Amino acid sequence: MFSLPVPNDEEVEGSSDEHPIHLPDVRADEFRLLLKVLLTSSFGSQGNLPSSPDEWLSVIKLARMWEMDEVCKKAIKMVPYSSVNKNAVEKVGLAFQYDIDEWLVPGLNELAKRAEPVSMKDVELLGWEVALKVAEVRESLVISTKAHDRVPLPPSGAQESGRSGKIVSTPVTRLSSGTRDASSVDFTSTIKRVFKLRDERSPKRLGHGKPQKKKSVTLAHIQQNPGALDQTF
Q1: According to the per-residue pLDDT averaged within each range, which of 29-33, 42-46, 160-164, 207-211 is highest?
Q2: How many CB atoms sit inside 10 A of residue 18's CB?
Q3: Is residue 25 classed exposed, middle or buried when 0-12, 13-18 and 19+ CB atoms within 10 A define those classes?
Q4: CA–CA separation, 108 vs 21, rounded Å?
Q5: Contact 34, 50 (CB under 8 A)
Q6: How far apart are CA 173 and CA 150, in angstroms?
Q7: Strand runs (DSSP E) across the chain, as ranges?
Q8: Nearest to 78 by CA among 47, 41, 50
Q9: By CB neighbour count within 10 A (0-12 exposed, 13-18 middle, 19+ buried), where does 94 fall?
Q10: Which of helix, strand or coil describes residue 150?
Q11: How far is CA 197 from its chain centroid?
Q12: Less crowded by CB within 10 Å, the N or C end of the chain?
Protein backbone atom coordinates (compact mmCIF):
# COMPACT_ATOMS: atom_id res chain seq x y z
CA MET A 1 0.00 0.00 0.00
CA PHE A 2 2.77 2.41 0.89
CA SER A 3 5.15 1.41 -1.90
CA LEU A 4 6.37 4.35 -3.95
CA PRO A 5 6.14 4.68 -6.84
CA VAL A 6 2.95 2.68 -7.29
CA PRO A 7 3.49 -0.10 -9.88
CA ASN A 8 1.46 0.60 -13.01
CA ASP A 9 0.59 -3.05 -13.60
CA GLU A 10 -0.60 -3.81 -10.05
CA GLU A 11 -3.59 -2.85 -7.95
CA VAL A 12 -2.54 -1.45 -4.60
CA GLU A 13 -4.08 -2.47 -1.28
CA GLY A 14 -7.36 -0.72 -0.61
CA SER A 15 -8.11 0.02 -4.26
CA SER A 16 -10.91 -2.57 -4.49
CA ASP A 17 -12.73 -5.30 -2.58
CA GLU A 18 -10.47 -7.84 -4.27
CA HIS A 19 -7.40 -6.02 -2.95
CA PRO A 20 -8.22 -4.98 0.65
CA ILE A 21 -5.79 -3.33 3.06
CA HIS A 22 -3.98 -6.04 5.01
CA LEU A 23 -3.70 -5.40 8.77
CA PRO A 24 -1.36 -7.94 10.39
CA ASP A 25 -2.57 -9.55 13.64
CA VAL A 26 -5.99 -7.88 13.37
CA ARG A 27 -9.20 -9.85 12.94
CA ALA A 28 -12.13 -8.39 11.00
CA ASP A 29 -14.47 -8.64 14.01
CA GLU A 30 -11.96 -6.76 16.20
CA PHE A 31 -11.69 -3.97 13.65
CA ARG A 32 -15.49 -3.69 13.42
CA LEU A 33 -15.69 -3.32 17.21
CA LEU A 34 -13.13 -0.51 17.17
CA LEU A 35 -15.07 1.28 14.42
CA LYS A 36 -18.25 0.99 16.50
CA VAL A 37 -16.52 2.77 19.37
CA LEU A 38 -15.04 5.49 17.16
CA LEU A 39 -18.27 6.22 15.32
CA THR A 40 -20.55 5.90 18.35
CA SER A 41 -18.42 8.45 20.19
CA SER A 42 -19.27 10.98 17.50
CA PHE A 43 -22.91 10.47 16.61
CA GLY A 44 -24.02 6.86 17.17
CA SER A 45 -26.28 5.38 19.81
CA GLN A 46 -25.09 3.64 22.95
CA GLY A 47 -26.64 0.40 21.70
CA ASN A 48 -23.94 0.10 19.06
CA LEU A 49 -21.13 -0.19 21.59
CA PRO A 50 -19.44 -3.53 22.43
CA SER A 51 -21.63 -5.52 24.79
CA SER A 52 -19.23 -7.94 26.52
CA PRO A 53 -15.88 -7.74 28.35
CA ASP A 54 -14.21 -9.82 25.63
CA GLU A 55 -15.38 -7.37 22.97
CA TRP A 56 -14.03 -4.44 24.98
CA LEU A 57 -10.71 -6.27 25.35
CA SER A 58 -10.54 -6.45 21.55
CA VAL A 59 -11.00 -2.68 21.43
CA ILE A 60 -8.27 -2.22 24.04
CA LYS A 61 -5.94 -4.48 22.03
CA LEU A 62 -6.25 -2.37 18.86
CA ALA A 63 -6.27 0.92 20.74
CA ARG A 64 -2.93 -0.01 22.33
CA MET A 65 -1.57 -1.26 19.02
CA TRP A 66 -2.34 2.03 17.25
CA GLU A 67 -1.71 4.29 20.27
CA MET A 68 -5.28 5.56 20.61
CA ASP A 69 -4.76 6.59 24.21
CA GLU A 70 -8.13 8.23 24.86
CA VAL A 71 -10.03 5.33 23.31
CA CYS A 72 -8.04 2.90 25.44
CA LYS A 73 -8.64 4.80 28.69
CA LYS A 74 -12.38 4.86 28.16
CA ALA A 75 -12.50 1.24 27.02
CA ILE A 76 -10.68 0.15 30.18
CA LYS A 77 -13.34 1.89 32.28
CA MET A 78 -15.94 -0.31 30.61
CA VAL A 79 -14.16 -3.50 31.72
CA PRO A 80 -13.75 -3.65 35.52
CA TYR A 81 -11.56 -6.47 36.81
CA SER A 82 -14.45 -8.40 38.36
CA SER A 83 -16.46 -8.43 35.11
CA VAL A 84 -13.97 -10.58 33.18
CA ASN A 85 -14.58 -14.33 33.29
CA LYS A 86 -10.93 -15.42 33.37
CA ASN A 87 -8.63 -16.70 36.10
CA ALA A 88 -6.23 -14.41 37.94
CA VAL A 89 -3.17 -15.46 35.92
CA GLU A 90 -4.90 -14.69 32.62
CA LYS A 91 -6.11 -11.32 33.90
CA VAL A 92 -2.66 -10.33 35.15
CA GLY A 93 -1.17 -11.41 31.83
CA LEU A 94 -3.65 -9.19 29.96
CA ALA A 95 -3.00 -6.34 32.39
CA PHE A 96 0.72 -6.37 31.57
CA GLN A 97 0.13 -6.97 27.85
CA TYR A 98 -2.29 -4.06 27.41
CA ASP A 99 -1.10 -1.81 30.28
CA ILE A 100 -4.33 -2.10 32.25
CA ASP A 101 -3.00 -0.66 35.52
CA GLU A 102 -6.39 -0.95 37.22
CA TRP A 103 -6.19 -4.74 37.07
CA LEU A 104 -2.72 -5.21 38.49
CA VAL A 105 -3.31 -4.86 42.23
CA PRO A 106 -6.51 -6.96 42.40
CA GLY A 107 -5.05 -9.59 40.07
CA LEU A 108 -1.72 -9.86 41.88
CA ASN A 109 -3.52 -9.87 45.22
CA GLU A 110 -5.59 -12.82 44.05
CA LEU A 111 -2.44 -14.69 43.00
CA ALA A 112 -0.77 -13.94 46.32
CA LYS A 113 -3.76 -15.16 48.33
CA ARG A 114 -4.40 -18.44 46.54
CA ALA A 115 -3.34 -21.69 48.15
CA GLU A 116 -1.59 -23.08 45.05
CA PRO A 117 2.05 -22.05 44.53
CA VAL A 118 3.41 -20.44 41.36
CA SER A 119 3.37 -23.11 38.65
CA MET A 120 5.13 -23.64 35.33
CA LYS A 121 1.88 -22.75 33.57
CA ASP A 122 1.92 -19.42 35.42
CA VAL A 123 5.49 -18.86 34.22
CA GLU A 124 4.47 -19.60 30.63
CA LEU A 125 1.69 -17.01 30.81
CA LEU A 126 3.46 -14.33 32.85
CA GLY A 127 7.15 -14.82 32.12
CA TRP A 128 9.91 -15.53 34.62
CA GLU A 129 10.31 -11.96 35.89
CA VAL A 130 6.65 -11.44 36.79
CA ALA A 131 6.32 -14.98 38.17
CA LEU A 132 9.32 -14.52 40.46
CA LYS A 133 7.93 -11.22 41.72
CA VAL A 134 4.61 -12.91 42.44
CA ALA A 135 6.54 -15.54 44.41
CA GLU A 136 8.31 -12.75 46.32
CA VAL A 137 4.97 -11.21 47.28
CA ARG A 138 3.68 -14.62 48.40
CA GLU A 139 6.82 -15.23 50.49
CA SER A 140 6.24 -11.94 52.33
CA LEU A 141 3.45 -13.57 54.32
CA VAL A 142 4.30 -13.07 58.01
CA ILE A 143 3.57 -15.92 60.39
CA SER A 144 1.52 -14.62 63.28
CA THR A 145 2.51 -15.21 66.86
CA LYS A 146 0.37 -16.46 69.72
CA ALA A 147 0.75 -14.21 72.73
CA HIS A 148 -1.31 -16.48 74.96
CA ASP A 149 1.16 -19.39 74.87
CA ARG A 150 2.81 -19.89 78.25
CA VAL A 151 6.41 -21.05 78.49
CA PRO A 152 8.90 -21.17 81.39
CA LEU A 153 11.44 -18.36 81.46
CA PRO A 154 14.25 -18.06 84.01
CA PRO A 155 14.10 -14.92 86.16
CA SER A 156 17.02 -12.51 86.21
CA GLY A 157 20.00 -14.11 87.97
CA ALA A 158 18.28 -17.51 88.24
CA GLN A 159 21.14 -19.31 86.54
CA GLU A 160 23.65 -17.98 89.02
CA SER A 161 21.52 -18.58 92.11
CA GLY A 162 20.16 -21.95 91.02
CA ARG A 163 16.56 -20.80 91.48
CA SER A 164 13.97 -22.30 89.16
CA GLY A 165 12.27 -20.19 86.54
CA LYS A 166 8.67 -18.98 86.68
CA ILE A 167 5.86 -19.50 84.18
CA VAL A 168 5.13 -16.35 82.15
CA SER A 169 3.14 -15.48 79.01
CA THR A 170 5.25 -14.69 75.97
CA PRO A 171 4.71 -14.62 72.21
CA VAL A 172 5.65 -17.87 70.51
CA THR A 173 5.87 -18.51 66.77
CA ARG A 174 4.80 -21.98 65.71
CA LEU A 175 5.79 -23.34 62.29
CA SER A 176 4.03 -26.27 60.69
CA SER A 177 3.48 -27.76 57.23
CA GLY A 178 0.08 -27.87 55.59
CA THR A 179 -2.28 -25.92 53.36
CA ARG A 180 -1.40 -22.26 52.96
CA ASP A 181 -4.25 -19.96 53.98
CA ALA A 182 -3.76 -16.29 53.09
CA SER A 183 -7.31 -15.59 51.95
CA SER A 184 -7.78 -12.80 54.50
CA VAL A 185 -4.41 -11.13 53.90
CA ASP A 186 -4.12 -7.87 51.94
CA PHE A 187 -0.84 -7.83 49.99
CA THR A 188 -1.43 -4.42 48.36
CA SER A 189 1.47 -2.55 49.95
CA THR A 190 3.89 -5.39 49.21
CA ILE A 191 2.66 -5.62 45.61
CA LYS A 192 3.23 -1.91 45.05
CA ARG A 193 6.73 -2.17 46.52
CA VAL A 194 7.80 -5.31 44.65
CA PHE A 195 6.31 -4.28 41.30
CA LYS A 196 7.18 -0.60 41.81
CA LEU A 197 3.62 0.55 41.15
CA ARG A 198 2.79 4.18 41.56
CA ASP A 199 0.00 5.13 43.90
CA GLU A 200 -3.24 6.16 42.22
CA ARG A 201 -2.98 9.55 43.91
CA SER A 202 0.59 10.10 42.87
CA PRO A 203 1.24 13.43 41.08
CA LYS A 204 2.90 11.44 38.29
CA ARG A 205 -0.37 9.67 37.60
CA LEU A 206 -2.70 12.63 38.04
CA GLY A 207 -0.48 15.25 36.44
CA HIS A 208 0.26 18.82 37.55
CA GLY A 209 -1.40 22.13 36.91
CA LYS A 210 -4.93 22.96 35.84
CA PRO A 211 -6.96 20.36 33.98
CA GLN A 212 -7.05 20.89 30.25
CA LYS A 213 -10.35 21.79 28.68
CA LYS A 214 -11.71 19.08 26.43
CA LYS A 215 -11.92 19.90 22.76
CA SER A 216 -14.90 19.02 20.59
CA VAL A 217 -14.18 16.31 18.04
CA THR A 218 -15.76 16.04 14.62
CA LEU A 219 -16.11 12.88 12.54
CA ALA A 220 -13.58 14.24 10.06
CA HIS A 221 -11.08 14.79 12.87
CA ILE A 222 -11.65 11.23 14.15
CA GLN A 223 -11.02 9.85 10.69
CA GLN A 224 -7.80 11.82 10.33
CA ASN A 225 -6.56 11.28 13.86
CA PRO A 226 -8.40 8.49 15.78
CA GLY A 227 -5.95 8.74 18.66
CA ALA A 228 -7.27 12.19 19.53
CA LEU A 229 -10.77 10.96 20.37
CA ASP A 230 -11.89 12.88 23.44
CA GLN A 231 -15.56 12.22 24.07
CA THR A 232 -17.29 9.89 26.45
CA PHE A 233 -18.96 6.78 25.13
Answers
A1: 29-33
A2: 6
A3: exposed
A4: 40
A5: no
A6: 12
A7: 150-153, 166-169
A8: 50
A9: buried
A10: strand
A11: 11
A12: N
